[in-house]
Amino acid sequence: MQDTQLPIDLIHWSLALLPLIVLLILLIGAQWKAPEAGPIGMFIAAGIAVFVYQTPAETLAIAGGKGVWDAIFILYVVWPALLLYRITQRAGGFDALRKGIERFSSNQLFLVLGFGWVFASFLQGIAGFGAPIAVVAPLLIALGVRPLYAVVIPLIGHAWANMFGTLAVGWLATLQVIELENETVTAFQTAILLWIPNLVSGVAIAWLFGKMAAVRHAWPLILIISVIHGGGQLVLTLWNPVLSTFLAASVGLAALYPLSRWSRYSEEAEEIKERPAMQETQEEKEPEEEANEAEPVMNLWMAGMPYIILTFAAVIALVIPPLEETLSQFEIGLPFAAAETGYGVENEAEEPYDPFEPLTHPGTFLLIASAGAWAIYKSKGFYAEWKEREDETEGIGSGLLEDAVPASIAIVAFLVMSKLMDHSGQTEVLALGIAEVAPPAVFAFASNWIGVLGAFMTSSNTASNILFAPLQQETVQAVEGLSEAAIIGGQSAGGAIGNAIAPANVVLGTGTAGIVGREGEVLRKTLPYAVVVAILVGGLTILLNSMNM
Amino acid sequence: MSKTSLLNIALIIMLVPFFLISIGTTEETSSLWWIGLICLVIGGIIPPVTRYAFGESDEKE
Prior knowledge:
- The structure holds two protein chains of two kinds.
- Chain A is an all-alpha fold.
- Helices cover 75% and strands 1% of the residues of chain A.
- Chain A has a two-stranded antiparallel sheet with strand order 1-2.
- In chain A, α3 (57-89) packs parallel to α6 (131-142).
- Classes of the chains: A mainly alpha, B mainly alpha.
- The A-B interface holds A 32-33, 35-40, 42-43, 57-58, 60-62, 64-65, 68-69, 72, 146-148, 334-337, 339, 349, 351, 353, 401-402, 405-406, 408-409, 412-413, 416, 515-518 and B 4, 7-8, 10-11, 14-15, 17-26, 28, 30, 33-34, 36-37, 40-41, 43-45, 47-48, 50-51, 56, 58, 60-61.
């Protein structure tokens, strides 16, 4: 953190919080759509920057330009994910996927946990940038999950994997901005804390599916997968934090096959009567109706082809070091001049600013999967067959703009708001305000809430740690009774949890699920999860902090 | 003009500033970054305005 003349008082702190509060009120309370609420938050942040935080117009412009650039990283997942959805859907791929998987296991709860938690975690382990939400939401809808729940479930399911996911980009960024006393101990304690969101996400998804009856049915599965995910990641951080989530999530995915052979999870769970997450319950589906369902146009293998291509493309490009290094060399980015405010908040000139590596970005893997799937489905005649059967008149591109544009506006507005708050010093005041008044135990509890705040604003565990890890470390050094490993662990775990409620992530899901405008409803379901997990992580951070001292 | 068309225009107007502001601030051409900033403001105003101009028409599940 730099030396500034920022006033750390209640008025400035409250005003810095105002854009976030207004955004939440508009989304959750007033039920505004994200593309309408996002710009309001952006304008409030800009107004406070100018009138309260002495931010000149040029700094506003620079923050705005950088925010737009940050949004492009996410838009490059949203648009290809929507394209992949349409390429698969218009060929009858989702119909085939649902019918094929139902033959494999007729246990809906197992499938929802398998896709919404285990597969989403696997995608976060390798791809990230919102790909788990954008890819899994349409898959869950195909399995019969209500669109609202199809967004909520991967948001919750993937969150724990954010810190060490995407080949530990968040961890590596943290090491770039702070020098840790003991990297291994910090990574290990972070992994201890991350086990909580992992375990709770399994329970929460089962609860969302069918309340306590579903939790009772799913508990062995949840425990086994959580030991693989959370325990695996914990042990692996001692060896290689970069691969810890990827390997743990891959083993979790592989474990689904033997679990699906267990009669408990291969057959439908009749005892779960109430299924609020599902569009159609077993009782509603008549046996004759089931028998009369037409055969899918393709087999399960073909239906899963886009996701197989996606996984292979990501693994080959990112896990083979020489290839990853070669592909990473191609970067795009534009420079920005230095920016400062009247309170002395400075941002250095950057040339280029946060360069974009398109060849290792998940958007490219989604485009490769889209192109591959389209070529295969076209050559096999699936589009013509599905069109004839379903009387489908809409092409692949139809409706793409209607879904992608509102989601894109919201994402741009959220990221610009985040950058405005950062460049004007509002973000720093928010964090410093907490650090200034909190005694050690309270700060230990609050450290992960600061991480949550950072991820809520930026939709990124990495950005949250870049923003706040230096502040957390400075507080540790200034206040007696704080342990660096526990506090940085708390920050990192909070950064992961915040991804479940980050508005840009929510919009990414509502955009690909075709329910843009229902962001408030999604947040009402993910917010309780985030609060419960943050309280538990805060408590464990206090314990770790006291054990380290 | 339909709401969809207006939102398409808003998105384009919001994306343009990145280039203008980058060039404007590094080349010290203030008119460019000012245009970029104004674009961002106009692009940002359009979506909330459509809320009132077109009302809420999306059906609930």
